[in-house]
Structure of General stress protein 69:
Amino acid sequence: MHTRSLGIDGPLVSEIGFGAWAIGGGWGEHDDRASIEAVHKAIDNGVNFIDTAAGYGDGHSERLIAQVMKERSEDIVVATKTPPADGPWPPSPYCRWQDRYSAAYLRDNIHTRLTNLGTDRLDLLQLHTWTRAWNDDPQPLLVLRQMREEGKIGLIGVSTPEQDQSCVIQLMRDGLVDVVQIIFNLFDQEPAAQILPVAAETGTGVIVRVALDEGALAGKYPADHVFPENDFRHRYFAGDRMARTVQRVEQIQSDMKIFGIQEQYTPADVALKFVLARPEVSTVIAGMRNVQQVEQNTRTSRLKDLPEDLLLQLRRHHWHRGIWYGGKD
């Protein structure tokens, strides 16, 4: 497993990280025993970065991770996230930070994060969403800075809102965040325009999420696939979204055949390698909830990098589809 620096002064982390949303619930039926087994297997395979959040099963994901950490001796970097207080998600331009991320709220929520993870210091605390409306008065991040001085937090980060990922650029340039978590994949390549170059310029760590577009880029779903109603993806791929997505995944698979790599690389490998081709990326958090998924995702780090001419060809799959959540039902 190759490692990369999580920001200019951050720790070395595995370039494939463990995305722990699914083990908290919300992705259909799940088994805690299989989840715990998956986390152990990921660590066995060299993964030393785990990303979770308060909202992943109302802390269930955090508590499962804490259970595993008690049984491991390795140094594992665990990142979690605090959501804003009740209100629209993502925050609207009219939301006040005082109502969504007040100092009292942040301290109380972070205390719960510490308790769930069974630690007295969080390696990385990310605000789970943000709005550009707060950029000129980013008091919530100053509260986190104070908590870092108190020894409660290590690194400070923000997870981008899907509809305005570039809102973190000012935060990076102002030195307010150590890490940003962004969506970057074969379909959504917009971060290459400015977010990634600014991360390099400022020494900001970059965590990439949704690198497999919620599993679609793994190429394992037919056009008529429908997820169960208790699976987050039932809404994500509502209407004709799955059919449209599969059509584009097939075009990526055609590129793989043209370059003759379909025997060595799976579509998931190509999707992950495309993201990892950017040196600004610190780690890619792939969702894993069983040993099979762990084996598939961690093997990618052992494969050779994709050839430059294929990377250039893959840029054509950038898709201006807007935000699924706001699309047709």
Observations:
- The chain has one domain: 3-219+264-306.
- The longest strand covers residues 153-159.
- The chain is about 35% helix and 15% strand.
- The longest helix spans residues 241-258.
